[in-house]
Amino acid sequence: MAERVVLISRSCTTGWADVIHGELWLSAEHLIRRRLGLWQTVANGLWRTVPSSAPQYEITADQILAIQCEHPTNSVVSWSDVVEADLRRGLLCSRLSVVMRSGSRRVFLWFAWDGAFARLEPVVQAIKAARVS
Q1: Strand partners for 12
Q2: Superkingdom, according to UniProt (predicted)?
């Protein structure tokens, strides 16, 4: 079964030591980070990396698994496995930090002007609300 994903950034890294940008895809079930290459990172420059009308696609479970296996910095987060989430807006970049049910932690950074913060905010609020109840 396919799920609809929305591209929310092409400037996503997995921490300050990761200098290669990646795509950040959002769906109701997952957050998917897919590494790009050096040349795409350079081409991104310091401006918005996705249009206001963000591209949407259908993606299958097999495609998600393939992305996860492509590169060690690729990441697939199942929202149902997130026990804690912290979203921060910065002047230059914003950050999402999640703690998984397994205890592992994932960090995603992206250009603040990409618009990803606004799309992630309701998801993080729902995770926090679920923790309270």
Answers
A1: 22
A2: Bacteria
Pairwise CA distance, residues 6 & 4, whole Å: 7
Tell me the fold of 3-132: PH-domain like (2.30.29)
Task: Pick the closest to residue 34 from 9, 1, 60 (CA basis).
Answer: 9
- 67 HSE (CA, 13 A, CB side): 21
Q: Where are the beta strands (DSSP E) in the chain?
A: 3-12, 22-26, 30-35, 56-59, 75-78, 82-88, 93-100, 105-111
Length of the chain: 133
Return averaged pLDDT per consecutive 10 residues of the chain, 133 residues in all.
94 94 97 97 89 92 97 97 96 97 97 95 92 71
pTM exceeds 0.85 = yes
